[in-house]
Design goal:
heterodimer; A: alpha/beta; Rossmann fold; three-stranded antiparallel beta sheet; 8 helices; 27% helix; globular; B: alpha/beta; 2 domains; 10 helices; 38% helix; 23% strand
Chain lengths: 304, 265
Protein backbone atom coordinates (compact mmCIF):
# COMPACT_ATOMS: atom_id res chain seq x y z
CA UNK A 1 0.00 0.00 0.00
CA UNK A 2 1.44 3.31 -1.00
CA UNK A 3 0.70 6.77 0.25
CA UNK A 4 -0.51 7.67 -3.21
CA UNK A 5 -3.21 4.99 -3.12
CA UNK A 6 -4.52 6.40 0.15
CA UNK A 7 -4.59 9.98 -1.08
CA UNK A 8 -7.66 11.33 -2.77
CA UNK A 9 -7.15 12.99 -6.11
CA UNK A 10 -6.70 16.72 -5.92
CA UNK A 11 -9.86 18.77 -6.31
CA UNK A 12 -10.12 22.53 -6.60
CA UNK A 13 -12.78 22.59 -3.85
CA UNK A 14 -14.96 20.30 -1.74
CA UNK A 15 -18.28 19.07 -3.09
CA UNK A 16 -20.76 21.85 -2.63
CA UNK A 17 -17.95 24.39 -2.07
CA UNK A 18 -18.03 24.19 1.75
CA UNK A 19 -15.59 21.85 3.46
CA UNK A 20 -16.89 18.83 5.33
CA UNK A 21 -16.48 20.29 8.81
CA UNK A 22 -18.42 23.42 7.88
CA UNK A 23 -21.26 21.32 6.48
CA UNK A 24 -21.22 19.07 9.55
CA UNK A 25 -21.56 22.10 11.81
CA UNK A 26 -24.36 23.56 9.73
CA UNK A 27 -26.24 20.26 9.76
CA UNK A 28 -25.92 20.02 13.53
CA UNK A 29 -27.17 23.56 13.96
CA UNK A 30 -30.05 22.91 11.57
CA UNK A 31 -31.05 19.87 13.60
CA UNK A 32 -30.88 21.92 16.79
CA UNK A 33 -32.96 24.68 15.29
CA UNK A 34 -35.56 22.15 14.15
CA UNK A 35 -35.62 20.70 17.67
CA UNK A 36 -36.32 24.13 19.20
CA UNK A 37 -38.50 25.91 16.63
CA UNK A 38 -37.89 29.62 16.29
CA UNK A 39 -34.85 29.64 18.58
CA UNK A 40 -31.75 31.21 17.05
CA UNK A 41 -28.73 28.93 16.94
CA UNK A 42 -25.28 30.49 16.50
CA UNK A 43 -22.96 29.04 13.91
CA UNK A 44 -19.58 29.84 12.43
CA UNK A 45 -20.65 31.43 9.19
CA UNK A 46 -18.03 30.67 6.49
CA UNK A 47 -16.77 32.82 3.69
CA UNK A 48 -18.51 32.16 0.40
CA UNK A 49 -17.77 33.89 -2.88
CA UNK A 50 -20.41 36.53 -2.28
CA UNK A 51 -20.55 39.62 -0.09
CA UNK A 52 -22.16 39.25 3.31
CA UNK A 53 -25.69 40.58 3.23
CA UNK A 54 -26.36 39.13 -0.20
CA UNK A 55 -27.71 35.81 1.02
CA UNK A 56 -24.61 34.10 2.35
CA UNK A 57 -26.59 32.54 5.21
CA UNK A 58 -29.14 31.00 2.89
CA UNK A 59 -26.42 29.99 0.47
CA UNK A 60 -24.49 28.08 3.14
CA UNK A 61 -27.62 26.18 4.19
CA UNK A 62 -28.41 25.36 0.55
CA UNK A 63 -24.83 24.21 -0.09
CA UNK A 64 -25.04 21.95 2.95
CA UNK A 65 -28.36 20.40 1.94
CA UNK A 66 -27.72 20.00 -1.77
CA UNK A 67 -26.93 16.76 -3.53
CA UNK A 68 -26.91 15.95 -7.26
CA UNK A 69 -30.48 14.63 -7.06
CA UNK A 70 -32.07 17.69 -5.44
CA UNK A 71 -33.68 20.14 -7.80
CA UNK A 72 -33.06 23.71 -6.71
CA UNK A 73 -34.95 26.95 -7.25
CA UNK A 74 -33.74 30.38 -6.19
CA UNK A 75 -35.96 33.43 -5.91
CA UNK A 76 -35.27 37.00 -4.98
CA UNK A 77 -38.30 39.02 -3.83
CA UNK A 78 -40.46 36.58 -5.77
CA UNK A 79 -38.45 36.78 -8.99
CA UNK A 80 -36.42 33.91 -10.46
CA UNK A 81 -34.75 36.18 -12.96
CA UNK A 82 -33.11 38.86 -10.82
CA UNK A 83 -29.32 39.10 -11.01
CA UNK A 84 -28.89 37.88 -7.45
CA UNK A 85 -31.24 34.90 -7.87
CA UNK A 86 -29.68 33.91 -11.19
CA UNK A 87 -26.15 34.18 -9.80
CA UNK A 88 -26.90 32.07 -6.74
CA UNK A 89 -28.77 29.49 -8.83
CA UNK A 90 -25.84 29.16 -11.25
CA UNK A 91 -23.35 28.93 -8.41
CA UNK A 92 -25.35 26.20 -6.66
CA UNK A 93 -25.58 24.22 -9.89
CA UNK A 94 -21.89 24.72 -10.61
CA UNK A 95 -20.57 23.47 -7.27
CA UNK A 96 -23.06 20.68 -6.66
CA UNK A 97 -24.21 19.51 -10.06
CA UNK A 98 -27.78 19.83 -8.83
CA UNK A 99 -30.42 20.45 -11.51
CA UNK A 100 -32.20 23.81 -11.34
CA UNK A 101 -35.78 24.78 -11.97
CA UNK A 102 -37.96 27.87 -11.99
CA UNK A 103 -41.12 25.97 -11.10
CA UNK A 104 -42.12 25.84 -7.42
CA UNK A 105 -43.79 22.45 -7.90
CA UNK A 106 -40.67 20.94 -9.43
CA UNK A 107 -38.23 22.15 -6.81
CA UNK A 108 -36.95 20.13 -3.87
CA UNK A 109 -35.06 23.01 -2.31
CA UNK A 110 -36.10 26.64 -2.65
CA UNK A 111 -33.78 29.39 -1.52
CA UNK A 112 -35.64 32.64 -1.25
CA UNK A 113 -35.09 36.22 -0.36
CA UNK A 114 -38.09 37.99 1.17
CA UNK A 115 -40.91 35.89 -0.34
CA UNK A 116 -42.64 32.55 -0.01
CA UNK A 117 -43.99 31.17 -3.30
CA UNK A 118 -47.73 31.44 -3.90
CA UNK A 119 -48.17 27.72 -4.55
CA UNK A 120 -48.46 25.58 -1.44
CA UNK A 121 -45.24 23.74 -0.70
CA UNK A 122 -45.22 20.02 -0.02
CA UNK A 123 -43.80 17.95 2.84
CA UNK A 124 -40.85 16.88 0.72
CA UNK A 125 -39.78 20.43 -0.05
CA UNK A 126 -37.45 22.66 1.94
CA UNK A 127 -37.61 26.44 1.98
CA UNK A 128 -34.42 28.32 2.85
CA UNK A 129 -34.99 31.97 3.68
CA UNK A 130 -32.20 34.53 3.64
CA UNK A 131 -32.28 36.66 6.78
CA UNK A 132 -30.59 40.05 7.11
CA UNK A 133 -31.40 40.60 10.79
CA UNK A 134 -32.42 37.52 12.78
CA UNK A 135 -33.02 39.30 16.08
CA UNK A 136 -36.63 40.50 16.46
CA UNK A 137 -35.76 42.21 19.74
CA UNK A 138 -33.04 44.40 18.24
CA UNK A 139 -35.39 47.31 17.69
CA UNK A 140 -36.47 47.25 21.34
CA UNK A 141 -33.26 46.06 22.99
CA UNK A 142 -29.98 47.00 21.34
CA UNK A 143 -27.95 45.08 23.93
CA UNK A 144 -27.81 41.55 22.50
CA UNK A 145 -26.83 39.96 25.82
CA UNK A 146 -30.00 41.29 27.40
CA UNK A 147 -31.98 40.32 24.29
CA UNK A 148 -30.84 36.70 24.74
CA UNK A 149 -31.98 36.80 28.36
CA UNK A 150 -35.31 38.16 27.19
CA UNK A 151 -35.68 35.23 24.79
CA UNK A 152 -34.76 32.83 27.59
CA UNK A 153 -37.43 34.36 29.82
CA UNK A 154 -39.95 34.66 26.97
CA UNK A 155 -39.98 38.34 27.93
CA UNK A 156 -41.65 39.80 24.85
CA UNK A 157 -43.54 42.66 26.49
CA UNK A 158 -41.45 45.21 24.60
CA UNK A 159 -42.43 43.65 21.26
CA UNK A 160 -46.07 44.14 22.14
CA UNK A 161 -45.29 47.64 23.32
CA UNK A 162 -43.84 48.39 19.88
CA UNK A 163 -47.16 47.35 18.32
CA UNK A 164 -49.06 49.38 20.92
CA UNK A 165 -47.01 52.46 20.05
CA UNK A 166 -47.66 51.99 16.34
CA UNK A 167 -51.41 51.80 16.90
CA UNK A 168 -51.35 54.85 19.19
CA UNK A 169 -49.35 56.92 16.71
CA UNK A 170 -50.73 55.73 13.39
CA UNK A 171 -54.04 54.10 14.23
CA UNK A 172 -52.83 50.72 12.94
CA UNK A 173 -49.90 48.36 13.10
CA UNK A 174 -47.26 49.77 10.78
CA UNK A 175 -44.92 46.77 10.73
CA UNK A 176 -44.69 45.92 7.04
CA UNK A 177 -42.13 43.16 6.49
CA UNK A 178 -40.52 40.81 8.98
CA UNK A 179 -43.59 40.79 11.21
CA UNK A 180 -42.63 39.33 14.62
CA UNK A 181 -44.24 35.94 15.06
CA UNK A 182 -44.50 33.48 17.91
CA UNK A 183 -43.27 30.04 16.92
CA UNK A 184 -44.74 27.00 18.63
CA UNK A 185 -46.01 29.23 21.44
CA UNK A 186 -42.51 29.88 22.75
CA UNK A 187 -39.98 31.89 20.73
CA UNK A 188 -40.63 35.13 18.90
CA UNK A 189 -38.81 35.20 15.58
CA UNK A 190 -38.57 37.54 12.68
CA UNK A 191 -39.67 35.53 9.66
CA UNK A 192 -37.08 37.45 7.55
CA UNK A 193 -38.42 40.47 5.68
CA UNK A 194 -41.26 38.60 3.99
CA UNK A 195 -44.39 40.73 3.61
CA UNK A 196 -47.26 40.30 6.05
CA UNK A 197 -49.00 38.46 3.21
CA UNK A 198 -46.56 35.56 3.57
CA UNK A 199 -46.52 35.13 7.35
CA UNK A 200 -49.74 33.05 7.55
CA UNK A 201 -48.19 30.65 5.01
CA UNK A 202 -45.73 29.53 7.68
CA UNK A 203 -48.44 28.51 10.13
CA UNK A 204 -48.81 24.70 10.15
CA UNK A 205 -47.02 24.58 6.80
CA UNK A 206 -46.22 21.13 5.43
CA UNK A 207 -42.69 22.06 4.46
CA UNK A 208 -39.57 22.70 6.53
CA UNK A 209 -38.42 26.31 6.60
CA UNK A 210 -34.84 27.11 7.54
CA UNK A 211 -33.90 30.73 8.09
CA UNK A 212 -30.25 31.62 8.04
CA UNK A 213 -28.34 34.87 8.55
CA UNK A 214 -24.77 34.68 7.29
CA UNK A 215 -23.60 38.07 8.49
CA UNK A 216 -25.22 37.63 11.90
CA UNK A 217 -24.28 33.92 12.09
CA UNK A 218 -27.66 32.62 13.25
CA UNK A 219 -29.88 29.78 12.06
CA UNK A 220 -33.46 29.14 13.12
CA UNK A 221 -36.20 26.97 11.71
CA UNK A 222 -39.90 26.37 11.44
CA UNK A 223 -40.39 22.60 11.23
CA UNK A 224 -43.38 21.20 9.32
CA UNK A 225 -46.76 21.51 11.04
CA UNK A 226 -45.59 24.10 13.55
CA UNK A 227 -47.73 26.93 14.83
CA UNK A 228 -46.54 30.36 13.70
CA UNK A 229 -48.70 33.16 15.03
CA UNK A 230 -48.01 36.81 14.29
CA UNK A 231 -48.10 38.93 17.45
CA UNK A 232 -51.49 40.61 17.56
CA UNK A 233 -53.68 42.11 20.23
CA UNK A 234 -56.85 40.18 21.03
CA UNK A 235 -58.97 43.04 19.70
CA UNK A 236 -56.78 44.23 16.79
CA UNK A 237 -56.81 41.56 14.09
CA UNK A 238 -53.80 40.71 11.92
CA UNK A 239 -54.12 42.26 8.48
CA UNK A 240 -52.27 41.32 5.33
CA UNK A 241 -51.61 43.72 2.45
CA UNK A 242 -54.78 44.64 0.61
CA UNK A 243 -53.79 42.98 -2.66
CA UNK A 244 -56.76 40.66 -3.01
CA UNK A 245 -58.50 42.85 -5.58
CA UNK A 246 -55.44 43.61 -7.72
CA UNK A 247 -54.86 42.06 -11.13
CA UNK A 248 -51.48 41.37 -12.71
CA UNK A 249 -51.12 43.56 -15.80
CA UNK A 250 -49.05 40.93 -17.63
CA UNK A 251 -50.53 37.59 -16.63
CA UNK A 252 -54.01 38.69 -15.45
CA UNK A 253 -53.47 36.58 -12.32
CA UNK A 254 -55.65 37.96 -9.56
CA UNK A 255 -55.67 37.75 -5.78
CA UNK A 256 -51.95 37.34 -5.13
CA UNK A 257 -49.20 39.51 -3.71
CA UNK A 258 -48.29 42.13 -6.32
CA UNK A 259 -45.37 44.40 -7.17
CA UNK A 260 -46.44 47.96 -7.78
CA UNK A 261 -45.08 49.51 -10.97
CA UNK A 262 -45.48 53.31 -10.85
CA UNK A 263 -46.42 54.94 -14.15
CA UNK A 264 -45.43 58.34 -15.54
CA UNK A 265 -48.97 59.66 -15.15
CA UNK A 266 -48.87 58.96 -11.39
CA UNK A 267 -50.98 55.84 -11.56
CA UNK A 268 -49.71 52.32 -10.92
CA UNK A 269 -49.93 48.97 -12.56
CA UNK A 270 -49.32 45.72 -10.77
CA UNK A 271 -47.44 42.53 -11.54
CA UNK A 272 -47.70 39.32 -9.62
CA UNK A 273 -44.65 39.16 -7.34
CA UNK A 274 -44.14 35.40 -7.75
CA UNK A 275 -42.70 35.53 -11.26
CA UNK A 276 -42.84 31.75 -11.74
CA UNK A 277 -46.58 31.78 -11.04
CA UNK A 278 -47.03 34.73 -13.39
CA UNK A 279 -45.14 33.01 -16.19
CA UNK A 280 -47.19 29.84 -15.75
CA UNK A 281 -50.39 31.87 -15.92
CA UNK A 282 -49.23 33.45 -19.20
CA UNK A 283 -48.25 30.05 -20.60
CA UNK A 284 -51.66 28.68 -19.73
CA UNK A 285 -53.33 31.64 -21.42
CA UNK A 286 -51.22 30.89 -24.52
CA UNK A 287 -52.51 27.34 -24.56
CA UNK A 288 -49.45 25.56 -23.15
CA UNK A 289 -49.91 22.56 -20.88
CA UNK A 290 -48.94 23.90 -17.45
CA UNK A 291 -49.38 22.30 -14.10
CA UNK A 292 -50.53 24.56 -11.27
CA UNK A 293 -50.34 23.69 -7.63
CA UNK A 294 -52.83 24.73 -5.01
CA UNK A 295 -52.22 28.25 -3.79
CA UNK A 296 -52.20 29.53 -0.24
CA UNK A 297 -54.45 32.41 -1.23
CA UNK A 298 -57.55 32.32 -3.37
CA UNK A 299 -58.88 35.72 -4.48
CA UNK A 300 -56.90 37.33 -1.69
CA UNK A 301 -58.22 35.05 1.05
CA UNK A 302 -56.17 32.40 2.82
CA UNK A 303 -57.44 28.99 1.81
CA UNK A 304 -56.21 27.10 4.88
CA UNK B 1 -77.72 40.52 85.71
CA UNK B 2 -74.23 40.88 84.55
CA UNK B 3 -73.74 42.31 81.14
CA UNK B 4 -70.68 41.24 79.34
CA UNK B 5 -69.18 44.06 77.38
CA UNK B 6 -67.82 43.28 73.99
CA UNK B 7 -64.11 43.03 74.41
CA UNK B 8 -62.16 44.98 71.79
CA UNK B 9 -60.92 42.65 69.12
CA UNK B 10 -57.20 42.55 68.97
CA UNK B 11 -55.86 41.44 65.66
CA UNK B 12 -52.20 40.82 65.22
CA UNK B 13 -50.91 42.05 61.93
CA UNK B 14 -48.02 40.34 60.25
CA UNK B 15 -45.54 42.61 58.57
CA UNK B 16 -45.77 42.60 54.79
CA UNK B 17 -42.06 43.18 54.33
CA UNK B 18 -39.40 41.60 56.50
CA UNK B 19 -35.76 42.40 55.77
CA UNK B 20 -33.31 40.72 58.11
CA UNK B 21 -29.60 41.26 58.74
CA UNK B 22 -28.66 42.41 55.28
CA UNK B 23 -24.98 42.97 54.54
CA UNK B 24 -23.65 44.35 51.30
CA UNK B 25 -20.10 45.19 50.31
CA UNK B 26 -18.84 46.81 47.15
CA UNK B 27 -15.19 45.85 47.23
CA UNK B 28 -13.83 47.40 50.38
CA UNK B 29 -16.85 49.66 50.84
CA UNK B 30 -19.43 48.33 53.25
CA UNK B 31 -22.73 49.67 51.89
CA UNK B 32 -25.06 47.90 54.33
CA UNK B 33 -24.29 46.40 57.74
CA UNK B 34 -26.78 44.10 59.41
CA UNK B 35 -29.73 46.15 58.23
CA UNK B 36 -33.18 44.91 59.23
CA UNK B 37 -36.56 46.46 58.51
CA UNK B 38 -40.23 45.65 58.91
CA UNK B 39 -43.05 47.25 56.96
CA UNK B 40 -46.66 46.57 57.88
CA UNK B 41 -49.52 46.44 55.37
CA UNK B 42 -50.79 49.88 54.47
CA UNK B 43 -47.90 51.57 56.21
CA UNK B 44 -45.46 54.12 54.79
CA UNK B 45 -41.89 53.61 55.94
CA UNK B 46 -39.55 56.51 55.35
CA UNK B 47 -35.82 55.98 55.13
CA UNK B 48 -33.63 59.02 55.70
CA UNK B 49 -29.93 59.55 55.81
CA UNK B 50 -27.10 61.43 54.19
CA UNK B 51 -25.76 60.60 50.74
CA UNK B 52 -23.93 57.27 50.80
CA UNK B 53 -25.74 56.03 53.88
CA UNK B 54 -27.07 52.98 52.02
CA UNK B 55 -30.74 53.94 51.78
CA UNK B 56 -30.97 53.62 47.98
CA UNK B 57 -28.98 50.37 48.06
CA UNK B 58 -31.52 48.97 50.51
CA UNK B 59 -34.37 50.10 48.25
CA UNK B 60 -32.77 48.47 45.19
CA UNK B 61 -32.49 45.26 47.18
CA UNK B 62 -36.16 45.45 48.06
CA UNK B 63 -36.77 45.76 44.32
CA UNK B 64 -34.54 42.68 43.84
CA UNK B 65 -32.19 44.59 41.56
CA UNK B 66 -29.27 43.60 43.79
CA UNK B 67 -28.43 40.63 45.96
CA UNK B 68 -26.81 41.16 49.36
CA UNK B 69 -23.82 39.23 50.65
CA UNK B 70 -26.01 37.88 53.44
CA UNK B 71 -29.46 38.41 54.86
CA UNK B 72 -33.04 37.59 53.97
CA UNK B 73 -36.08 39.34 52.50
CA UNK B 74 -39.62 38.02 52.64
CA UNK B 75 -42.97 39.35 51.49
CA UNK B 76 -46.12 38.15 53.21
CA UNK B 77 -48.12 37.37 50.06
CA UNK B 78 -50.19 34.29 49.32
CA UNK B 79 -48.22 33.36 46.21
CA UNK B 80 -44.75 34.31 47.43
CA UNK B 81 -42.71 32.41 49.96
CA UNK B 82 -39.17 32.04 51.22
CA UNK B 83 -36.19 34.31 50.99
CA UNK B 84 -36.68 36.43 47.89
CA UNK B 85 -32.94 36.91 47.48
CA UNK B 86 -32.77 33.21 46.59
CA UNK B 87 -35.18 33.54 43.66
CA UNK B 88 -33.76 33.06 40.20
CA UNK B 89 -33.65 35.89 37.65
CA UNK B 90 -36.93 34.99 35.99
CA UNK B 91 -38.88 34.68 39.25
CA UNK B 92 -37.43 37.99 40.43
CA UNK B 93 -38.42 39.67 37.21
CA UNK B 94 -41.98 38.38 37.35
CA UNK B 95 -42.35 39.30 41.01
CA UNK B 96 -41.06 42.83 40.42
CA UNK B 97 -43.18 43.19 37.29
CA UNK B 98 -46.40 42.25 39.04
CA UNK B 99 -46.16 42.81 42.80
CA UNK B 100 -43.60 45.55 43.39
CA UNK B 101 -43.72 49.03 41.88
CA UNK B 102 -40.86 51.49 41.95
CA UNK B 103 -40.45 55.18 41.25
CA UNK B 104 -36.85 56.18 40.62
CA UNK B 105 -35.28 59.50 41.39
CA UNK B 106 -34.20 59.76 37.77
CA UNK B 107 -37.15 59.15 35.41
CA UNK B 108 -34.68 58.01 32.73
CA UNK B 109 -34.18 54.84 34.80
CA UNK B 110 -37.84 54.03 35.05
CA UNK B 111 -39.30 55.23 31.76
CA UNK B 112 -38.86 54.69 28.04
CA UNK B 113 -38.44 58.34 27.26
CA UNK B 114 -39.39 58.18 23.57
CA UNK B 115 -42.43 55.94 23.95
CA UNK B 116 -45.80 57.42 24.76
CA UNK B 117 -46.72 57.99 28.41
CA UNK B 118 -49.62 55.58 28.09
CA UNK B 119 -47.24 53.07 26.47
CA UNK B 120 -44.95 53.29 29.45
CA UNK B 121 -47.82 52.33 31.71
CA UNK B 122 -49.05 49.71 29.24
CA UNK B 123 -45.63 48.05 29.22
CA UNK B 124 -46.13 46.96 32.81
CA UNK B 125 -49.52 45.51 31.97
CA UNK B 126 -48.08 43.74 28.92
CA UNK B 127 -45.43 42.03 31.02
CA UNK B 128 -48.22 40.79 33.25
CA UNK B 129 -49.90 39.23 30.19
CA UNK B 130 -52.60 41.72 29.18
CA UNK B 131 -53.19 41.37 25.43
CA UNK B 132 -56.26 43.50 24.72
CA UNK B 133 -55.44 46.88 23.23
CA UNK B 134 -58.66 48.46 24.53
CA UNK B 135 -58.04 47.15 28.05
CA UNK B 136 -54.44 48.31 27.99
CA UNK B 137 -55.54 51.74 26.93
CA UNK B 138 -58.28 51.95 29.55
CA UNK B 139 -56.05 50.75 32.37
CA UNK B 140 -53.19 53.04 31.37
CA UNK B 141 -55.62 55.95 31.28
CA UNK B 142 -57.02 55.05 34.67
CA UNK B 143 -53.56 54.76 36.28
CA UNK B 144 -52.44 58.05 34.77
CA UNK B 145 -55.63 59.73 35.96
CA UNK B 146 -55.07 58.35 39.46
CA UNK B 147 -51.60 59.89 39.51
CA UNK B 148 -53.14 63.19 38.39
CA UNK B 149 -51.47 63.21 35.00
CA UNK B 150 -53.24 65.48 32.49
CA UNK B 151 -55.00 63.05 30.15
CA UNK B 152 -54.78 65.35 27.15
CA UNK B 153 -51.07 64.45 27.13
CA UNK B 154 -51.77 60.72 27.35
CA UNK B 155 -49.66 59.83 24.35
CA UNK B 156 -46.92 62.41 24.75
CA UNK B 157 -43.47 60.86 25.22
CA UNK B 158 -41.96 61.56 28.67
CA UNK B 159 -38.99 63.31 27.06
CA UNK B 160 -41.37 66.13 26.14
CA UNK B 161 -42.73 66.40 29.68
CA UNK B 162 -41.62 68.32 32.76
CA UNK B 163 -39.88 66.56 35.67
CA UNK B 164 -43.06 66.54 37.74
CA UNK B 165 -45.04 65.02 34.89
CA UNK B 166 -42.39 62.39 34.35
CA UNK B 167 -42.63 61.41 38.01
CA UNK B 168 -46.40 61.12 37.64
CA UNK B 169 -45.94 58.78 34.67
CA UNK B 170 -43.53 56.71 36.76
CA UNK B 171 -46.06 56.66 39.56
CA UNK B 172 -48.85 55.61 37.20
CA UNK B 173 -46.64 52.84 35.85
CA UNK B 174 -45.84 51.68 39.35
CA UNK B 175 -49.45 51.54 40.52
CA UNK B 176 -50.97 50.21 37.29
CA UNK B 177 -51.04 46.65 38.59
CA UNK B 178 -51.96 47.65 42.15
CA UNK B 179 -48.67 46.43 43.60
CA UNK B 180 -48.39 44.99 47.08
CA UNK B 181 -45.37 47.19 47.72
CA UNK B 182 -44.51 50.59 46.26
CA UNK B 183 -40.90 51.74 46.50
CA UNK B 184 -40.06 55.41 46.02
CA UNK B 185 -36.45 56.50 45.62
CA UNK B 186 -36.22 60.24 46.18
CA UNK B 187 -39.38 60.83 44.13
CA UNK B 188 -39.38 64.59 44.55
CA UNK B 189 -35.68 65.39 44.33
CA UNK B 190 -34.94 67.91 41.61
CA UNK B 191 -38.53 69.20 41.46
CA UNK B 192 -39.37 72.74 42.45
CA UNK B 193 -41.18 73.21 45.75
CA UNK B 194 -44.67 73.69 44.32
CA UNK B 195 -44.41 70.62 42.09
CA UNK B 196 -42.91 68.70 45.01
CA UNK B 197 -45.97 69.53 47.09
CA UNK B 198 -48.31 68.37 44.30
CA UNK B 199 -46.49 65.05 43.90
CA UNK B 200 -46.53 64.49 47.65
CA UNK B 201 -50.25 65.28 47.77
CA UNK B 202 -50.83 62.69 45.06
CA UNK B 203 -48.81 60.14 46.98
CA UNK B 204 -50.71 60.78 50.19
CA UNK B 205 -54.05 60.58 48.43
CA UNK B 206 -53.12 57.33 46.70
CA UNK B 207 -51.91 55.85 49.95
CA UNK B 208 -55.13 56.80 51.74
CA UNK B 209 -57.41 55.63 48.93
CA UNK B 210 -55.66 52.40 48.06
CA UNK B 211 -53.87 51.58 51.30
CA UNK B 212 -50.68 50.88 49.38
CA UNK B 213 -47.71 49.81 51.46
CA UNK B 214 -44.86 52.17 50.64
CA UNK B 215 -41.19 52.56 51.37
CA UNK B 216 -39.93 56.03 50.57
CA UNK B 217 -36.30 57.04 50.55
CA UNK B 218 -35.34 60.67 50.84
CA UNK B 219 -32.68 62.89 52.29
CA UNK B 220 -35.38 65.54 52.70
CA UNK B 221 -36.85 65.25 56.19
CA UNK B 222 -39.81 67.41 55.19
CA UNK B 223 -40.86 64.86 52.57
CA UNK B 224 -40.57 62.00 55.03
CA UNK B 225 -42.49 63.90 57.67
CA UNK B 226 -45.28 64.60 55.19
CA UNK B 227 -45.91 61.09 53.94
CA UNK B 228 -44.33 58.52 56.28
CA UNK B 229 -45.85 56.76 59.29
CA UNK B 230 -42.54 55.42 60.56
CA UNK B 231 -38.98 56.50 59.94
CA UNK B 232 -35.71 54.63 59.75
CA UNK B 233 -32.56 56.71 60.01
CA UNK B 234 -29.47 55.33 58.29
CA UNK B 235 -25.85 56.31 58.49
CA UNK B 236 -22.82 54.63 56.93
CA UNK B 237 -24.79 51.53 56.03
CA UNK B 238 -26.37 51.06 59.45
CA UNK B 239 -29.76 51.79 60.95
CA UNK B 240 -29.05 54.18 63.79
CA UNK B 241 -32.62 54.84 64.87
CA UNK B 242 -36.16 53.84 63.92
CA UNK B 243 -39.56 54.84 65.22
CA UNK B 244 -42.80 56.67 64.60
CA UNK B 245 -42.52 59.96 62.73
CA UNK B 246 -43.50 62.13 65.70
CA UNK B 247 -41.22 60.23 68.00
CA UNK B 248 -38.23 60.65 65.72
CA UNK B 249 -38.86 64.27 64.89
CA UNK B 250 -39.85 65.44 68.37
CA UNK B 251 -37.62 63.29 70.52
CA UNK B 252 -34.66 61.99 68.56
CA UNK B 253 -32.42 59.77 70.65
CA UNK B 254 -29.37 59.15 68.54
CA UNK B 255 -26.88 61.98 68.18
CA UNK B 256 -26.90 61.73 64.40
CA UNK B 257 -30.71 61.89 64.29
CA UNK B 258 -30.65 64.90 66.59
CA UNK B 259 -28.16 66.54 64.28
CA UNK B 260 -30.34 65.78 61.24
CA UNK B 261 -33.55 67.01 62.83
CA UNK B 262 -31.99 70.16 64.23
CA UNK B 263 -30.23 70.90 60.98
CA UNK B 264 -33.62 70.77 59.31
CA UNK B 265 -35.30 72.89 61.92
Amino acid sequence: MSLKSLTKPWQPMSYGFLDASAKRELRRKMLKSVAVPGCQMPYASREVPMARGWGTGGLQVSLTLLNPQLRVKVIDQGADDSVNAASIRRFLALVSGAPVTLDTLGADLIQSRHRIPEEIMREDQILVLQVPNPEPLRSVQPNMSIARQMHADADYGRMWLQLYEQIVRSGRVMQGAGYPSLVNGRHVMTPSPIPRWDVPKLNMAKHLTILSAGREKRIFAVPPYTRVKPLVFDDVPYRVEDHGGLTCSRSTAKGFFMNEIPQVDGSSTYEVSDSSYGVKTIQKRDGDAVQFGETWYNDGEMTQ
Amino acid sequence: MTRVMDAPRIVTTKPLVVVRNVDKNYGSVQALRQVSALVYPGEVLGIVGESGSGKSTLLRMMNLEETPDSGSYTLDLSDVSGNLFELDRFARRMLCATRIGIVYQNPHHGLLMRHSSSGNVAERLLVAGERSFATLRAKAKSALAASEFPLERLDAPPIELSGGMQQRVQLAKAIALEPALLLLDEPTTGLDVSVQALVLDTLKRLQQERQITMVIVSHDLGVIRTVADRVMVMRRGEVVEAGLVDQIFQDPQHAYTQQLVHAKL
